[in-house]
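Quick start: what a row looks like.
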Amino acid sequence: MTAAKGTTLIFAVTILILCCTCTNANEKQPGKVNFREKEKQVLDQILGPGRYDARIRPSGVNGTDGPAIVHINLFVRSIMTISDIKMEYSVQLTFREQWLDERLKFNDFGGKIKYLTLTEANRVWMPDLFFSNEKEGHFHNIIMPNVYIRIFPYGSVLYSIRISLTLSCPMNLKLYPLDRQICSLRMASYGWTTDDLVFLWKDGDPVQVVKNLHLPRFTLEKFLTDYCNSKTNTGEYSCLKVDLLFKREFSYYLIQIYIPCCMLVIVSWVSFWLDQGAVPARVSLGVTTLLTMATQTSGINASLPPVSYTKAIDVWTGVCLTFVFGALLEFALVNYASRSDMHRENMKKQRRQQYESEHALEFEFQPLVRHPGDPMAIEKLRPCEIHVPAKRENCCRTWLSKFPTRSKRIDVISRITFPLVFALFNLVYWSTYLFRNEGEET
């Protein structure tokens, strides 16, 4: 019994100490303010029923009846794809709007409440901004909706949201793949005219781009901000735009298109060094290179939209295809010339045989005794003297005379002509399109 009484006494003393501690703690708390509770009271005060109407736009500068001013700034988080076929690009960005609504002013309790945070955009008035060149778009809701609204004590409202957009980007592909493209992001008011709502770029740095932005086939050279107000039958609407200047990476196309096409053209020239009689080898080489070049051209065109003008890559593939086709036609010409040479040699051989047979018969019936007074006999015995005027030697003719047949001469001339013309084409092509590219950039 004594032990039980002792345990009960200890338990009672412990309860008494805890009660005293709680009392002392409560005595110390009255001077401390719970500002989270104050935030709730402020929100109920400024957004309570009958106090704020989200359907009415804010007043103008200094409470005037002028238009509400909304400042915009963007943070480009990533650029996913730039499609040449669809002429569009996908971008993910953090979009921010800031404006002044004097109806939302509140007491900050000596700077203790820096701002109030909302996640429901319908609680306050919002600008009716839309992206005019948008094709598709969606918000991000993982894990929670990526959106917030901050209300500052002096009535300033900051709206921030993360969105992904697919935007149209009309492209001029005349210089493809040596081109630069300008893709725009346009933002405009849908219903409020400039008498009620005006968008302005935020001072300082209105557009930021994530560092180490990586694009597979393009490089973002620079971006420019501008205004694009539009006038319609219903009034003038405020509009902002940012132009993104993309430069196409040429190294990919050099490795995948230009060098293989050059190799195919050079391979087609191998037939010039093959023997004229190797018909199967020369035909198979010409047809194979021609089909490969045609396949390469169709593969390039499959990755581009059908346009009505000629692109730089069309000129390149067209000329390369012409060279390969020309090498195949050259063999046809050589084959025809070779058969013509053979026919000519056969005709000469027949004439020679006929001449020899006729002279042999004439020799058989000639008299063996010559009369001394026969003048015709003396003239026949005199050697024939032919005077040919001297001609200046032509180095080209002298060099070509080393090749007796026309077919061989065609092959030899083609060995020199085809590479020289292709080199000249390369000089004209690269100088033309590179200078045009620099001129358009300027």
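That is the whole record. Confidence is low (pLDDT under 50) at residues 20-30. Helices lie at 2-28, 35-47, 250-268, 279-302, 312-365, 375-381, 395-400, 406-441.
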